[in-house]
Amino acid sequence: MKQTFLILIFIYLSMFLKAQSIEAYRVFTSNGEVAEMDHLLGATDTAQVVLFGELHNNPIAHWAQIEVLKYLHQNRKQVVLGMEMLETDNQLIVDEYIAGHYDARRFEEAARLWPNYSTDYKPLVDYARAHQMRVVASNIPRRYANMVSKEGFDVLDELSEEALLYIAPLPVVYDASLPGYQKMLTMMQGGPMGKEANANFPKAQAIKDATMAHFILINLPSDGAFLHLNGTYHSDNYEGIGWYLDTYQPTVKTLTIATRKQSDIHILEEQNLQVADFILVVDEDVTNSY
User: pLDDT tens across 55-80, in order?
Assistant: First the structure.
């Protein structure tokens, strides 16, 4: 009887420990070594810019972004939050909301917000508002990116001086040979548009990257850090925004974070090595936010 009792305890204990070992995510360094979230947070101590590449519908990534923002707020003198999800011509609206001039309902009515703003980005913006952090709308107005996707960079020369205030300075430096832009073009040519997909599609991505980099740099705090939230494709492999930051201001110290989903989070898959300084790997069974 005693032996049976001990066996049952052992079984229950094993089941408990197994349940306790279930993880929703893991953090890895660029070379695939397992890291802790504290390690990632500590690495931001010397960064001027933190590019957090997210999967837009991933709740673990959005939770981690909040943790990074809180850590920076607690450990750096100045913190600025920048967001791909906010467009540069909405900066006045953002400033007024952060300053407390009107409530969230009016802000959300006036700004062109993403459908998942309330679940995924509002907590970050409201944290910044509560602590009077500057929030930078960094992305090019989508109407201008759409123009570039159809007609290329030259179409921007037709815009007014006022419109050009919302875009990276022209002419835009562009390297069509960068693997990320090459991959984008290849994917589009293999998609519904087929051969109709042309070289202007990666240019639309590039004008977004260039504009976000430009607005990061002109809002870079003199003694602190700039946390920028963007789709992971915009900063993977140290390309995109990071490439433009390095082009515009080579001395800027940038830390990159990428987000990936894997069926097995205990080892970093080969294709995810070296995509960023830290890789947040989320179990593919984690439910999307939309």
Answer: 999 999 999 999 999 999 999 999 99
Which domain, by its residues, includes 168?
A: 29-283
Record the pTM: 0.91
C-alpha–C-alpha distance, residues 183 and 153, integer Å:
20
Distance between CA atoms of 244 and 128, rounded to whole angstroms?
Answer: 26
Number of domains comprising the chain: 1
Residue 132: give its domain's CATH number: 3.40.50.11550
Class of residue 96 by CB neighbours under 10 A (exposed 0-12, middle 13-18, buried 19+): middle
Find the farthest-apart pair of alpha carbons in the chain and give their distance in angstroms, rounded: 88
Q: What is the pLDDT of residues 254-288, one digit of tens each?
A: 999 999 999 999 999 999 999 999 999 999 999 99
For residue 21, the number of C-alpha atoms closer than 13 Å in the C-beta half-sphere is 8
pLDDT of 71-120, one tens digit each?
Answer: 999 999 999 999 999 999 999 999 999 999 999 999 999 999 999 999 99
